[in-house]
């Protein structure tokens, strides 16, 4: 094996830096998002001076004016001329949602199944990049040449249409990235996993398998979509006088079809609430699905009909801040309201990290006297992710030399690593975001780190999530702020104007705080004040210390000294 110190971008002491360029003897994997977290999937494969990106997703956030977070793409942007394309495994937001934000700085072709491509076009149709983005559709079984890589797309099954497994081949070997998947023998929409093709790939030799880890703690597969359809139909019929709302993931087209058919059987009209749901339905119909979709009613019609004659399908199963169901439950929806005549079926799972927002949503609904039925009580959701049994079967089909667990929190990745070792996998590597994983060109290992982190969509711009803008906003929200303007005449303080936010109640408590700060500043800085930056910093530090002493808070402090 060659010495690491001879490789461009590698330092034996500090590991890999952002100048790393893979040679013709390297085949490497670099996750910039999607490891140690559920969401924000963004992986890169590198060989012979070139890169591919697999998935470009977001995660959601509901604080500090931030709703959407992406992986920090700095490394990818620095190597933009070397990137041959972004390959999207499927149309879930945590795999496709960041394309609209990051493509303008990556500017490379985007490859996706027809359904995922249709979703992407709908998402960006009003954005400036719409006319220039190059979206290429991939059919199952098709091979795409992208520079030094050959990529084949295989049919998978998941909780959305047309999920793809990418088989990426170079002269050094083949890497398989299955995306999110499960085995389902009789899917209600779409095709089942082509196990014959996976076995063919395995027989030809698989260097590494990048494996979905989300459901590793489940021993057996969950119920099928067909059983979910049967259970939803039964429950709807058991609630003949209630207005029924089904909360599900917008991208779960099979679940949408299930809900529609169940409503038809119960003689109910259907309203679809939420732009993302409507966008998914449009994309499905454009690509040949949901052809017999019934005529929908609008929100006003739904509220004017007897409760037992209507069913609504809503986004918001995860308690997302701006989703339709959250706005309804909190009384902020302009048309729809709920009461004791409503029942909400949560036909979804709890994504790790969303427990609090979902609990808050349930509490909002309970206060409105709404009945709640979740998948924990009834079989109204089927996971789209593989159990341990399914993952074992995938190992047997692919027979990989290396397993790299991805798409999961640390506990998921580590659990799959232990499981893979117990199943006889030769090499198992658990990466963090930013870890450069050597698959070929030396012993499989993490050979260093590159810059990684998060970017936030902040209004019309992208900002570094752990940078000064968001940090200051967080400090303001948690610790409050004090703004001070001091008039100085010949090194003496002639006037102090204070404005505090988020620290004391209005009226007398605030006046006492101002008096306490003013008296202390006059006493300490009398006769030695001037309009210099050093003086402003000294006064700011003093005010922060005073507030900490009095209230136990460390506010953001801004001081301006004006010479009269």
Tell me what the structure shows:
The protein is globular and about 85 Å long. Residues 1-14 have low confidence and may be disordered. The N and C termini lie far apart (72 Å). The protein folds into three domains: 27-220 and 383-464, Metallo-beta-lactamase, Chain A; 225-374, Metallo-hydrolase/oxidoreductase (Rossmann fold, 3-Layer(aba) Sandwich), CATH 3.40.50.10710; 480-563, Ubiquitin-like (UB roll). It is built from 16 helices and 29 strands. With 564 residues, it is an alpha/beta fold. α4 (114-124) packs across α8 (275-286), α5 (195-204) packs across α12 and α6 runs parallel beside α7 (253-265).
Quick take:
The protein is an alpha/beta fold.
Please write out the topology.
Elements (H helix, E strand, L loop, with lengths): L9 E2 L3 E2 L10 E7 L8 E6 L2 E5 L3 E6 L2 E6 L2 H5 L4 E5 L5 H4 L2 H8 L3 E3 L1 H11 L10 E3 L5 E4 L2 E7 L8 E7 L2 E5 L17 H10 L1 E7 L12 H13 L5 E5 L5 H13 L3 E5 L1 H12 L12 H6 L5 E5 L9 H6 L12 E5 L8 H13 L3 E4 L13 H11 L1 E7 L3 H13 L4 E2 L6 E6 L4 E5 L4 E5 L2 E4 L3 H12 L1 E9 L2 E10 L6 H18 L7 H19 L4 E8 L1
Helix pairs in contact: 4-8, 5-12, 6-7, 15-16
């Amino acid at each position: 094996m060659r010495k690491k110190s001879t490789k461009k971008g590698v330092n034996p002491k500090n590991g890999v830096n952002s100048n790393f360029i893979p040679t013709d003897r390297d085949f490497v994997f670099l996750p910039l998002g999607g490891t140690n977290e559920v969401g924000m999937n963004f992986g890169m494969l590198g060989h012979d001076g070139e890169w591919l990106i697999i998935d470009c997703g977001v995660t959601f956030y509901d604080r500090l004016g931030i709703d959407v977070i992406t992986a920090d793409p700095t490394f990818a942007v620095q190597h933009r001329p070397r990137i041959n394309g972004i390959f999207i495994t499927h149309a879930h937001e945590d795999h496709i949602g960041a394309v609209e934000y990051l493509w303008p700085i990556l500017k490379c072709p985007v490859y996706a199944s027809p359904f995922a491509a249709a979703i992407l076009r709908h998402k960006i149709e009003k954005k400036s990049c719409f006319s220039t983005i190059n979206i290429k559709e991939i059919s199952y079984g098709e091979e795409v040449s992208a520079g030094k890589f050959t990529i084949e797309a295989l049919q998978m099954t998941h909780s959305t249409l047309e999920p793809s497994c990418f088989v990426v081949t170079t002269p050094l070997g083949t890497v398989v990235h299955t995306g999110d998947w499960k085995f389902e023998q009789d899917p209600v929409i779409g095709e089942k996993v082509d196990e014959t093709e996976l076995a063919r790939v395995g027989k030809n030799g698989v260097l590494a398998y990048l494996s979905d880890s989300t459901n590793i703690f489940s021993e057996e597969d969950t119920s099928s979509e067909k059983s979910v359809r049967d259970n939803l139909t039964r429950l709807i019929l058991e609630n003949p006088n209630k207005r029924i709302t089904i909360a599900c993931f917008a991208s779960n087209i099979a679940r949408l079809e299930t809900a529609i058919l169940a409503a038809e059987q119960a003689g109910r009209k259907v309203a679809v609430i939420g732009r993302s749901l409507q966008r998914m339905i449009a994309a499905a119909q454009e690509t040949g699905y949901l052809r017999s979709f019934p005529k929908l009613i609008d929100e006003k019609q739904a509220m004017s009909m007897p409760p037992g004659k209507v069913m609504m399908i809503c986004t918001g199963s995860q308690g997302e801040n701006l989703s339709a169901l959250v706005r309804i439950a909190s009384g902020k929806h302009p048309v729809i309201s709920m009461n004791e005549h409503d029942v909400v079926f949560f036909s979804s799972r709890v994504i790790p990290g969303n427990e609090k927002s979902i609990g808050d949503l349930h509490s909002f609904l309970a206060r409105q006297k709404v009945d709640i039925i979740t998948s924990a009580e009834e079989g109204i959701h089927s996971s789209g992710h593989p159990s341990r049994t399914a993952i074992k079967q995938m190992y047997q089909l692919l027979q990989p030399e290396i397993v790299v667990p991805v798409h999961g929190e640390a506990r998921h990745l580590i659990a799959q690593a232990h499981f893979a070792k117990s199943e006889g996998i030769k090499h198992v590597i658990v990466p963090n975001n930013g870890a450069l994983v050597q698959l070929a060109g030396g012993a499989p290992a993490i050979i260093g780190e590159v810059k990684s982190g998060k970017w936030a969509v902040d209004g019309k711009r992208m900002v570094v999530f752990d940078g000064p803008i968001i940090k200051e906003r967080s400090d303001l929200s948690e610790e409050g702020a004090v703004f001070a303007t001091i008039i100085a005449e010949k090194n003496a303080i002639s006037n102090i104007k204070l404005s505090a936010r988020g620290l004391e109640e209005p009226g007398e408590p605030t006046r006492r705080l101002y008096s306490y700060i003013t008296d202390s500043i006059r006493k300490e800085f009398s006769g030695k004040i001037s309009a210099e930056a050093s003086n402003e910093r000294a006064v700011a530090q003093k005010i922060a210390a005073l507030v900490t002493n009095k209230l136990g808070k460390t506010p953001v402090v801004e001081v301006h000294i004006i010479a009269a």
